[in-house]
Amino acid sequence: MDSWKSTAMTLAVLSYLAVGSHAGEGPVGKEVLKAAFAGSWYSADANELRRDIAGYLEEAQVEPRQDVLGLVLPHAGYAYSGPTAACGIKSLGRGYRRVVVIGPTHRLPMEDTFSVPRATHVETPLGQVALDIEFIGRLLQHPVFQSIPSAHTQEHSVEAEIPLLQYKLGDFKLVPIVAGQCSYAAVAQAARILAGLVDADTLVVASSDFTHYGPQYRYVPFTDNIPKNVKKLDMGAFEFIRKLDAKGLLAYRDEKEATICGCVPIAVLLEVLGKDTKAEMLHYATSGETTGEYTNSVSYMAVAFRGVWATPAAAPAADTSSSPLTAEDKKQLLALARKTLRYALDHQKVPQASDLDFTPSEAMTRPRAAFVTLKKQGQLRGCVGDIFPQRPLYKSVIGNAVYAGFGDRRFEPLRSDEYGQLKIEISALTSPTPVASWRQIRIGTDGMVLNKGGRSAVFLPQVAPEQGWDLETTLSQLSLKAGLPADAWKQGASFLVFQADVFGEEP
């Protein structure tokens, strides 16, 4: 397959994955996110897991402190990172009412976006932890925080910290945050929001491994004195951490092309902390030390931040504006989708906005999901999109124009001779929210996502009116689309709804 088609298909698969799992989209009643990595990254047996953590804590040479506000902890398999993580956990000399854990996404594209789950509890082999629903709700009032289900069901960076915290702290409420690929501006914005919400009973944990060295990680900046040079890279990063310099840390990562996966979570933590906070490295290790082999090696660091939280400034006001698209915005987005298809046909690769001489308006730069629909002579020719806002709207349009043209598995890839016959339609979506019952879905107004038994399907708001379906017929068709019996929607299914600003080229 040509490289550009391969890229399009890879991105399309990621897009489908992002829509494919809606576990924990409540909370209607009790919604539990179950640990996905027990049995691989750490033991799935509760007694064995307790013994492992107890052993790591016994070996940790750290004195507990009463004034720890935050931690940097690793998130690799416990056999490798457990001793380092235990040093951070052992430094906690008191309990906390709330623990905020910020971890990076390793696979999901989430540009300038942080995700929190819509659930009530997280469950590990050590039991359930209640989520701080009120705190999460206040985060979701700001567009930089979204709820993207697959960010939590397919990511280990936050989950890896939870059993350690359960063992050490016992009862607390959890705020799990998965950070995407974020600019400093997005980091600073998220930090300002968090700083207005944390209090003296809050611990903030940034989950991060450090240098990933070796061909397995596509990072081989040197081939001699590997342990020494790896440590030099990591200590260079720690200097910015010690100085609480979030902007400097992100710049260091970019300059060195450093493979520190949790740079964004660490940067958020550094921005939240007061300037009088003291950073203390508690432990540093590498997997190369454990295996005795440095062909591929990952570094681990435990850092404690000591001090007192500053008196919380008022959290920024909730952003309730939807940044409505103007008529000119819509015209420009349709032109962008068409230029994207032309570029892909001519150059056999996915374009960047700069390749298309496109400058987005402010409304287009906000994270927002979109579908791009292609029709040829009135018949569907491709339709692919995102359900959850993972990137700026204009980038969603570029990506999904390519997906619709070349990655929709129902159709052959678009040909040049079809280009002039296409009509393009864009649906710019609001963030999905759960409803308690299918009866709350409004035909012609709400798009809908059905989830049941690990299967899901989505209809845009315009689908039912175009087909002349009533609500029950629509839900039956949606069930069939999900690969379920036609009446599966009647019992045991959960639903999300969203609205869409739909606009297209003139017929």
Strand content: 15-25%
- Quickly name the level 1 CATH class of the largest domain: Alpha Beta
Distance between the termini: 34 Å
Shape: globular
CATH superfamily of the largest domain: LigB-like
How many domains? The number is 2
- The name of the CATH topology of the largest domain is Protocatechuate 4,5-dioxygenase, Chain B
Radius of gyration: 24 Å
Please tell me about this protein's structure.
The chain is of the alpha+beta class and 507 residues long. It folds into 2 domains: 68-306, LigB-like (Protocatechuate 4,5-dioxygenase, Chain B, 3-Layer(aba) Sandwich), CATH 3.40.830; 327-504, Hypothetical protein ph0010, domain 1 (Glycoprotein, Type 4 Pilin, 2-Layer Sandwich), CATH 3.30.700. It is 34% helix and 21% strand. It has 15 helices and 20 strands. The protein has helices at residues 3-20, 46-59, 78-90, 133-139, 149-153, 162-169, 184-195, 226-242, 246-256, 263-272, 287-291, 327-347, 393-407, 463-467, 471-481; strands spanning 32-34, 68-73, 98-104, 114-115, 121-124, 127-130, 145-146, 173-179, 202-207, 212-213, 278-286, 297-306, 370-376, 379-385, 422-429, 433-435, 447-452, 455-459, 494-498, 500-504. The strands form 4 sheets. Strands 2, 3, 4, 7, 8, 9, 10, 11 and 12 form a 9-stranded mixed beta sheet that branches. A 4-stranded antiparallel beta sheet has the order 14-13-15-20. The chain has a 4-stranded antiparallel beta sheet with strand order 16-19-17-18, with helices on one face. Helix 12 packs across helix 13. The protein is globular and about 70 Å long. The model is unreliable at 1-28 (pLDDT under 50).
